[in-house]
Structure formats: structure tokens, C-alpha cells
Amino acid sequence: MKPSTMVKLAALLTLALQLVGCGSAEARFYPLGGSDVKYTAPVPADKVELFITKKPDYKYTELGILTFDTPASFADEPQAYQKLREKAGEIGADGVIVMDSQSFTENYPRFELDYYGNPMEINRVRSYVKYKGVAIRRQ
Questions:
Q1: Which of 28, 31, 60, 124 is most enclosed, with most CB atoms within 10 A?
Q2: What contacts 118, CB < 8 A, 6 or more positions away?
Q3: How many angstroms separate the CA atoms of 133 and 17, rounded?
Q4: What pTM was computed for the model?
């Protein structure tokens, strides 16, 4: 195989991997485990309580961590909180205690071909905000 063909193939493969690695628009759930935690039937998202500035005034069990990533330029807190509520409802949680959000910037070096087919290195920067919460169930 010609070197120029190999470079083009490598550039195409890199692009494909980057597209596959793009974040989804769904929240993720990471269970805390424990044999005493039982998951129940789903709950409608509008029934899941959201605790932003205070903790619940009742006893609860922590089910797991919820996360939702959004590009920094499109950070929309109400939408992020809604996504956390929807995911919490899927696992049967009664509420979500919102934790501090975090901003991240990642640098992805990659190679592209210029107009003449010569490889050139380009650095792609990705900035996003990660919203987190703890899914809880009333005891």
C-alpha cells in the first residue's frame, strides 16, 4: 500500500473514532452497589424531587451517582437537571441531590490532510460541563 494511501486511511480511521467517541445526550447511572439496595419500578420524571440547595428532611438510601455531560457552549442547567431526573426515574429513585458541576477541557491531537494530501497535526479542544447528582430513595 502506498504511504499516501496509508495516511489517508489513518486520517479516516481517526475521524471515525472521534465521531464514535462523541458524548450522548443521555444521563448515565453508576450504582453504588450493596446487597441491601433494591431497585424498584420506574417513576415518572416529574415525580422525582430535586434537591439543589439543601438535603431532604427525611431518611433516604443512596442508590448511585448520576452524570450528564453537555458542551460548555450549550450548558443549560434546567435541561441538565431534567435529564438527571429522567434517569433517576428510570431506576425508581424518589429524588436527586444535585452535586457541584465541573467544567473540563480536553485536548485531542490528530492528523488531517491538507489540500495537497500532506499530513498535518491539528489539536482539537473539547470543553464540556459535567452535572452530577446522587439518586436517592425514601426509607
A1: 60
A2: none
A3: 29
A4: 0.69
